[in-house]
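Reading group handout, session on sequence-to-structure problems. Before we discuss, look at one worked example. The prompt was deliberately terse, the way you'd type it at a terminal:

> structure RING-type E3 ubiquitin transferase

The input record follows.
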Amino acid sequence: MAKTVEADPTAAAKAAEELKRELARLVRAIVHDDEFSAETVDQASRTLCALKDLKANRRSLSLRLSQSSVGLPEEFRCPISKELMRDPVIVATGQTYDRPFIQNWLKSGKRICPRTQQVLSHTILTPNHLIREMISQWCKNNGVQLSDSLQYSDEERLTEADRDRFLSLLEKMSLTQSDQKEAARELRLLTKRMPSFRALFGESLDAIPQLLYPLSQNKSLSSIHPDLQEDLITTLLNLSIHDNNKKLVAETPMVVPLLLDALRSGTIETRSNAAAALFTLSALDSNKALIGKSGALKSLVDLLEEGHPLAMKDVASAIFNLCINHENKSRAVRDGAVGVILKKVMNRMHVDELLAILAILSSNQMAVEEMGDLGAVPCLLSIIRDSSCARNKENCIAILHTICFSDRTKWKELRDEEKTYATISQLAQNGTSRAKRKASGILERLNRAVNLTHTA
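And the output record:
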């Protein structure tokens, strides 16, 4: 539900309030309804974006009104936005643009100068201090206040020295191994501590290939120094946290293959951070499909089977996120995820995370059949009896519901369980709303079978 507000501040305020009410309604639906749909989440996301855009438009409107009253010099306008530049930067052709607008232009994949249409030899943005000082003086002379409208992001607070340091560290990646290790360690620390350095990688299509040069040039994994691999993979993880980088990182051709190499080799921290990077990147639907097609699920399942405590949560999170994609569910099942996960659950290892994966896989018929064959029913019933976690009980009964309605031979186990422990009846009374529905559905089926038997 997006609205466009041209110039009426009152209308803008009313629209904002309406969007806030709609957002509150959607959030309540997500929080309180266990059966909320994906469309509800999408609507909430769209409403939040509309509210953000409305706020930005109101700030822009205020600035435009100030500019129009005093005659803004043309050279102070950004060629893209046509508005007063707040952070003028110079591109490779020598043209000046407002940083956020030229950044968006470059992030959309365009590699030409908007004004001259020349191909950019690089996408590094250099601050235009002269124009910035002239704009500042003009604003002061004409009573234009930029402070309320000026919202500098982390990347806009970088100094020229920071950018020079960034380029210098990337250049070291093609030098000796000693230089590479030193630069990789520093980039790992900088991208961990400073979001601005994460954003810098989005300004140049060459930055990530430069970062990963030491890994891409080594044909043998054994020839890569473990510390160097760990620092570079962890830097990739840090970059992936920055929302604007997710698409760029995942679609850089060498990234996913190198993450898969890291899942299979190196220190356990390297492997864990590679899994965490895949999890973070898979927040984008397009990345879920791309990563799934790469064969990543097999490597993740293999690492999960190893069961190293440091890696388990990151691996489970990555598998769960990827399996939201329908095709990836089938891939995970083919790659042995059900057997590996069920074995861990039976051994009561990371039950919370792994049950969530089984629940999402239970919409796949092959997964359901495999769960039934591998003894999932008694395992899930025992968790419902013993666990104090309402979400785990809910996931268990949801999986049981799917298994038993798919395979009638499993109903005897449920009847025996109900006679001995009344497990399902108790959940139908005390579980979450979703658990109650699933448990009641099973009880109804059990009672109907008993009545049919008596009638016969």
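Points for discussion. First: The chain has a mean pLDDT of 84. Second: The CA atoms of residues 362 and 402 lie 7 Å apart.
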